Amino acid sequence: MPETRILITGAQGQLGCALRSVLPPETLILKDLPEFDLTAASCEEQIVQARPHVVVHAAAYTNVDGAEREPDRARAVNVEGTAAVARAAQRVGGRLIYISTDYVFDGAKDTPYTEEDPTNPLNMYGRSKRDGEAAAAEHCEDCLVVRTAWLYGHGGKNFVKTIMQLAGERPVLEVVADQRGCPTFADDLARALVDLIPSRLTGICHVTNSGSSTWYEFADTIVRLIGSATVVRPIPTTQSQRPATRPPYSVLAYGRLGLVRAPLPDWRDALDRFTRQIRSSASTIPSSGAAPV
Ligand SMILES: NC(=O)C1=CN([C@@H]2O[C@H](COP(=O)(O)OP(=O)(O)OC[C@H]3O[C@@H](n4cnc5c(N)ncnc54)[C@H](OP(=O)(O)O)[C@@H]3O)[C@@H](O)[C@H]2O)C=CC1
Ligand SMILES: Cc1cn([C@H]2C[C@H](O)[C@@H](COP(=O)(O)OP(=O)(O)O[C@H]3O[C@@H](C)C(=O)[C@@H](O)[C@H]3O)O2)c(=O)[nH]c1=O
Ligand SMILES: [Mg+2]
Fold first, then answer.
1. Pairing assessment for the beta strands 184-185 and 151-152 based on DSSP bridges
2. How many CB atoms lie within 10 A of CB 290?
3. In the chain, what are the domains?
4. Which residue, by CA, sits nearest to atom 10 of ligand 1?
5. Rg of the Cα trace of the chain?
6. Which helix (H) or strand (E) holds 30?
7. Is the confidence metric ipTM above 0.95 for this complex?
8. Could you please report the per-residue DSSP string of 125-162?
9. pLDDT 10s digits, 123-133
């Protein structure tokens, strides 16, 4: 049988970078801005022409506060763009893996969300991703929606890098302590996708690192791991001035992933590995006057 061709959208993003490090390069077709634009008329045709067996659709509008300011753009990318990707996957008889988010939930629960729980997003980003899930499943028969959360990795902006940078600049950081979720290392999610791609699983599957944390506890752990003297102070969400409302609780249950593989490592273990990687790559780059992390 010929080798499986896997097309990755958002190939330069956090998850895209992680997937490129775990999948054989000769199997990959990489798509991202500016040549590949989910809002361009050519998007569907570009995928069809590549004739992939599997599409991992990781590209998205991921600026949560930005989506409140430009909801039309967020929907064009996350909903209409996803519909185009799904139509293309269907046309070539391919499998679609759509990456979605814990922000589809409202946080009214206080026990982990299962794949069967109803969605009720609180912000524009979450609504666009929820509608993206529906578009993916509507247009492609062999579709798996993989919901993950609080993602960090190489090749993109994330909370860990923000806190590492702020810890080098400020003596005190204030971080919300009443929002709980599952920090997830993109490398670990990519390894789970290696198992999910050839599986027959369709529908929805939750994939995060194990355990849960508040943003405060996450930030405090980052600061300790990098040996910074910065003090992290817990604050309530009412003191955080952000345009987008975040769910107070969005822990995703280890559910259907159990049909395919063991749970991912604990989030503290994953964070330890990521911060070590960042620090060792920083120490091998010749100094340019940047603050060491
Ligand atoms: N980050 C997180 O915390 C979480 C992310 N997710 C989901 O996981 C997936 C991967 O996330 P992550 O890797 O962090 O995302 P990133 O933002 O790191 O990467 C997304 C990629 O998509 C590209 N992109 C943006 N707009 C378009 C467009 N119009 N056409 C083509 N490409 C575009 C971005 O390009 P550019 O950088 O130039 O804009 C970027 O390279 C996304 O679907 C996201 O919704 C789910 C849960 C948590
Ligand atoms: C940096 C920082 C954030 N915060 C708060 C703001 C917010 O409530 C929370 C997280 O902030 P961020 O803006 O970094 O993260 P946010 O954009 O909310 O992250 C989300 O991104 C999208 C793409 C997802 O899909 C989600 O799973 C989730 O990872 O932490 C502080 O209280 N203090 C701080 O210094
Ligand atoms: Mg980019």
1. parallel
2. 9
3. 6-157+184-210+251-265 (3.40.50.720)
4. 58
5. 19
6. strand 28-31
7. yes
8. HHHHHHHHHHHHHHH-SSEEEEEE-SEE-SSS--HHHH
9. 999 999 999 99
